[in-house]
Amino acid sequence: MGRGQGQRNAPMAGLTALSAAVGVLLASLLLLRQEDVGQGADASMAETGVLLKLREDFRSQNKSVFILGATGETGKVLLKEILDQSLFSRVTIIGRRKLTFSEEAYKNVIQEVVDFEKLDDYASAFQGHDVGFCCLGTTRSKAGAEGFVRVDRDYVFKSAEMAKAGGCKHFNLLSSKGADKSSSFLYLQVKGEVESKVEELNFDRYTIFRPGVLLCDREESRPAEWLTRKFFGSLPESWASGHSVPVVSLVRAMLNNTVKPSDQKKELLDNKAIHNLGRARGSSAQGHTEKGA
Ligand SMILES: *[C@@H]1O[C@H](CO)[C@@H](O)[C@H](O)[C@H]1NC(C)=O
Ligand SMILES: *[C@@H]1O[C@H](CO)[C@@H](O)[C@H](O)[C@H]1NC(C)=O
Asked: Does domain 63-292 have CATH number 3.50.70.10?
């Protein structure tokens, strides 16, 4: 008897969870419908022209950039896009091991190998960069709770401190949707805490990116993200896009934002702002496009 009951309970719990999910979904759809009224095509054409000009101006300033976390999913794509757009005259990646690149485009990338436990010994690696991107991070499942805090809070903060001391003017931090230093979730709490610690360093310009779930092609290493993606995949695109963003869009948003002069000391880009700033013409359906048979 006990056995039969156990078997009945599992699907019941599943059903309850499902109907809760459907409720959330419907509510989200209603909210999204109001916001999604499209922007005029003319406006975005003009925007693109402006962006090209901004990029040109930016290039002519021969700036130097560093990337932390260039082996990660975002950092990798960011490095590639920075090289593709030739936005900087000096590109440095700072990491804990030397990488080998076979492509010609990477031949001028400067590599600084550091020990994150002794960053004070590596001040020169952080010297003289105008712009910095920090995409450093691990997960609790990879590094354990302590390891996660060590990397996502301590290494990130220390790197920011070194960058500031080295003269960095514009620091970009990859954070997360929901980052909140008073959150009871370790992940969101640490993200929120490091956001505000870095703010105290007082960069001339400080940009925080808070994307939702990042969509990329490395399913096997992130089962939870993969599942989420599967789940999103069966939901209306408008709902999914409120809670996730393709890595490529994130990276474009980072660079589109960087080339735009700003007089704001602190900028906070949420998932929606990242979508808006990172959309590429004609590729909004990237990854969903079906080739005709
Ligand atoms: C940037 O570099 C180019 C080519 O080396 C040079 O012609 C130009 O004067 C430099 N611009 C600035 C602002 O230093
Ligand atoms: C951002 O940059 C991409 C190219 O990297 C461009 O195609 C896109 O139109 C830009 N988005 C906006 C909103 O300017």
From this structure: no
Q: Could you tell me which of 18, 24, 74 has the C-alpha nearest to residue 242?
A: 24
Of 79, 115, 122, the C-alpha closest to 96 is: 115
* This prediction's pTM: 0.78
Domain ranges of the chain: 1-60, 63-292
**What residue ranges in the chain does DSSP mark as E strands?**
64-68, 90-95, 110-113, 131-134, 170-174, 205-210, 213-215, 244-246, 266-270
Distance 172 CA to ligand 1 centre (A): 25
Three-class SS state of 157: helix
Q: Is the CB of 62 under 6 A from ligand 1?
A: yes
Tens digit of pLDDT for each residue in 162-215? 999 999 999 999 999 999 999 999 999 999 999 999 999 999 999 999 999 888
Residues 6 or more apart from 75 whose CB is under 8 A from it? 67, 68, 69, 93, 133, 135, 136
Residue 85: name the closest of 226, 266, 280 by CA. 280
> How confident is the model over 244-259, as pLDDT tens digits?
888 999 999 999 999 9
Q: Residue 187 catalytic?
A: yes
